[in-house]
Amino acid sequence: MRLQVRARNFALSSEIRGYAEAKLARLSRQLADGTSIEVELIEETKHAKRTAEATVFAKGSTMRATESTSDMRASIDRLVENLERQVVTYREKRRLERRRRTEHHGA
Hints:
By secondary structure, the chain is an alpha+beta fold. Helices cover 34% and strands 33% of the residues. The chain has a 4-stranded mixed β-sheet with strand order 1-2-3-4, covered by helices on one side. The longest helix has 25 residues, at 72-96.
């Protein structure tokens, strides 16, 4: 799993980056190795909001989530919970979907 963390409107500290990477590492157990995750952490000064946005590029689908709170760590926590629900649904759908089979021309 490839993880990319970016910041907008503030300097990304190693503490916040490490926190986001540790939380999102929980998804690596459920996703394939070729999956990439892009996380953008945004701080708005006007409304004192901290937003965490993530996009998961998995095989066959793309999952997105956005969470906003007044604390960056809380935003990351809620974002990971949202993504975990989406990943569980994605995995169940891929596991239960039957392959479409067609009859052979000669049969």
